[in-house]
């Protein structure tokens, strides 16, 4: 039985939007929708609510089938990996309000670095989140079930060297061959580099060739699925 294919893009903002848009278009040509990881704040002072072009782009593509995933709470280093529940709760509330304000509220969460603290895991469902995408799998925050599918990525916490891009490609093919779900992640910054972009598209093509079904992160009202239920 073939698995699924989930492709996520992080680092989406004014400076990377053209490259992200081109990659997204290439995926659509292959029949693959994208999970779009959205940060509301960054260390350099960036604020999503002040970036109208990115908000408009995200809104349009969500309406066409892409998934919006909250990518952490702000631009601080090391946040979700070690936050106590109380602080995680406050940050989640603030990020949730921002997304609601710009019309992009979501019940999906992914942590920068793809790891979260126990406190964050407690705070997420309290704030209405239903799915948490991590490095080693996808957690249904309602049932506690975890679908264990390792994430393969370039940038945003993953290596970016050419040898690593080849490793991602070979690993994606191996996982697809054995019927596993293939989860791929790439940062918007890396999509400006031909090598990283090509490696991602090649990995997508191989997964599709071996029968993987395109999917996005989502929660389906308590029912289980192989990707994010």
Secondary-structure arrangement, i.e. CATH architecture: Alpha-Beta Barrel
Number of domains: 1
Name of the level-1 CATH class: Alpha Beta
Proportion of residues in extended strands: 15-25%
Q: Count all strands and give the number.
A: 10
How far is the N terminus from the C terminus?
19 Å
The average pLDDT value, as a whole number, equals 91
Count of helix runs: 7
What is the CATH topology descriptor? Answer: TIM Barrel
User: Low-confidence parts lasting 5 or more residues at pLDDT below 50?
Assistant: 223-229
- Major sheet size, sense and barrel closure: 10 strands, mixed
- Report the structural category: alpha/beta
* Portion of residues within helices: 25-40%
List its traits:
10-stranded mixed β-sheet; 7 helices; 229 residues; 38% helix; TIM Barrel; alpha/beta; disordered C terminus; 17% strand
Give a quick rundown of the structure.
The protein is α/β, with parallel strands linked by helices.
What can you tell me about this protein's structure?
This protein is an alpha/beta fold and 229 residues long. It has one domain: TIM Barrel (Alpha-Beta Barrel). 38% of the residues lie in helices and 17% in strands. The chain has 7 helices and 10 strands. Strands 1, 2, 3, 4, 5, 6, 7, 8, 9 and 10 form a 10-stranded mixed beta sheet that branches. Helix 4 packs across helix 5 and helix 6 (162-177) runs parallel beside helix 7 (194-209). The longest helix has 17 residues, at 85-101. The two termini are 19 Å apart. Residues 223-229 have low confidence and may be disordered.
